[in-house]
Amino acid sequence: MISNSDKIIAVSQQTKKDLISYYHVPDDKISVIYEGASKEYKKMDSQEIDVIRQKYGLKDPFILFVGNLEPRKNIPNLIRAFSHCREQNENLKLVIAGRRGWLYEEIFTTVTELHLENKVQFLDYIPHEDLPALYNAAMIFVYVPFYEGFGLPVLEAMQCGTPVITANTSSLPEVVGEGGIMVDPLDIADLSEKISLLISDEYLRKENIRYNLSRCEEFSWKKCAQQTAEVYDEIYNKN
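^ thats the sequence. predicted structure below, dont judge the formating
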C-alpha cells in the first residue's frame, strides 16, 4: 500500500523519519502536516471549571494525565515522580483520565506499592465535551510517553492555558518547541523536580502558559486542511 501511494502525509517529522527508516519510503514522497487542537480547547472562566470539579469530585489541586492506560504512556514513572513531589505538596493529587488499554496492571500495582490509593484518582473515559474544562482545572498537565506520533493532548492542554511538562522524545519536542518544559521519560527524579518547581514558582507557571499559548498559534486544523488540500492538488496536477 505504501509503495503504491503517490504521496504520504505524516503528522510529524518523527513519523516521517520512522517511515523512511522502517519502510524505506523516499524522503520526497512524504509531506509533514501537523494536526491542530479544536477551538473548544481554550481558557475558560471559573464557573465552567467549578462545574467540572463538582462533576468529578476534584476538590484538591491536581496534576492531570489524559490518555489510554498502556505501557507506551509511561504512567508508572509518572506515579513514582508524583510520589516524590508529594512530600512538599501534601494536598496534591494525580488525576488519570483515560480508558484501560493493554498491560495496564503495573499502573495500579505502582499505586498500591506506594500507598497512593487516596491520592491517585482514575476517571476512566472522559466525554469530549468535558475535556477542555478538565484541562483548565488542572494545576499542571504531565504527559511523558516513551513514544508519540504527534501528541495531541499536549497541544490541547497548552491551548487551554495549562502549564505542561512533556517528554523530550519522539514528536513531542516538535509540539512544545524549544521553550517547552521537557524531561527524559526515564528520569523520575528530574520529572519530580520539574513538577515541584512548576507548582511552587508562580513566575515560571505564568511564563510557561504565555509561551504555550503563543506556540499554539503554529498549529490549527485550518492550516492542516489547507496543506492537505495542497498535497491533493499536487497529485492531481501531476497525474
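Residues 35 and 119 are 34 Å apart (CA to CA).
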